[in-house]
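Page 42, continued from yesterday. The earlier attempt failed because a stray header line got pasted into the input along with the sequence. Redoing it now with the clean sequence only.
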Amino acid sequence: QVFVCGDDMEAKQKVMDIVCALGLTPLDQGSLLAAQEIENYPLQLFPMWKFPIFLSLGLTAFFFFYCLTLDIIYPYVYEKKDFSFFIAISIPNKICPILALILLALVYLPGVLAAIIQLYRGTKYRRFPDWLDKWMLCRKQLGLVALAFASVHVLYTLVIPIRSFVRWRISSSTVSQALNNKTEPLNTTNAWISDSYLALGILGFFLFVLLGITSLPSVSNNVNWREFRFVQVR
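This time it went through. Structure tokens are written below.
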């Protein structure tokens, strides 16, 4: 994108035509009063990433302390059980999918609010409130942060079988069955539930990655609106 501003509409249109001829996308920023703000853009450090990052950090801290209290502090105080090792994998593996879903919901929520405002006003040609406008402009960044949390959740899930706690629990169950001379039969219902859960998780993550890839400007510029909407709806 190339930002263009000016008080002479004819001259500004000529500049925008030159920008289009160069294969770039002109973006009308209004009058020359916006020139100082545009010139300061190169000095800004990730301006559209501040809100998504601060929001994700705040939500991470909130859910971390909630899970810390529920899974570690409460059992230690009332049951005298030390589950402090949950901080390394179990708690992050709970936080990551929650944040991924919340941030993904925040990607589409401003579009719903914008539609409600347009219906209430009876027109789509009035400017949205500043808070909603800024929220809508950082939707791609929110989506990419959500994809990052989902990817971390996948990695944490893959290492679960090699955890010491999980291997101890499996060996303890095996020893218990051997001492009791009794083998628990396979519960096919639970097996179906477990496999379906994992299969849907894999499919959901694949669609999440596809959504994130098509949201990248370099990719979205190569697909038409119908193709982009098809991916978004799915």
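Notes: The mean pLDDT is 85.
Reminder to self: strip header lines before submitting.
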